[in-house]
Amino acid sequence: APDISFVDNVFVYNGTAKEPEVTVKDGQLLIPESEYNISYVSNVNAGEAKVVVSDEEGGNYILSGFAAFTISKASLSAIADNVMMKKGDPMPELTVRYKGFVNDETEAVIMKPCIAYCEDITDTIDGIYQILVSGGEAANYDFVYVNGSLTIYVPVVLADEAGNEVGASVMTEEDTGHVVIVTLTEGMLNG
User: Fold this and answer.
1) What is the reported pTM?
2) Strand partners of residue 133
3) Within 10 A of 155 (CB to CB), how many other CB atoms are there?
């Protein structure tokens, strides 16, 4: 059997066929490319792929053989979306989004979606809780989990001296963190 080797034998999935450069030898003697044909098997998806070397009819060698190479899974980020909820409200849906698909692929290639969840959480205590991501299954992707945060907050109600509500804090989420904006009425400023 001929000695079949590759310049590169490890590739990362990108949705396209991998056709590594092949060198074929008989012992130490390099066999010219005109002496054989090359074909590839299972060379698109992650896993083991093969290059098959077959004899070129009418050549000086009788060749037949194959060699394996690896296509590794691509990395795909599974990101927990940050969520805010008012203390006492029902738990909001925790969601995951994905980043890093290759070759115009979408979530349709995910066989089992990742899940987002919180551990040791009580909706009676305000604070920031970590949203964890786990699970997920895809033939051509390995997941990289990116945790998020669940912020349970207590709204601040502003009242005048008689106890009448005159304003409330509004909490908004920004990429840089959480910001509390307090709106004061004119009567409170002059009071």
Assistant:
1) 0.75
2) 116
3) 11
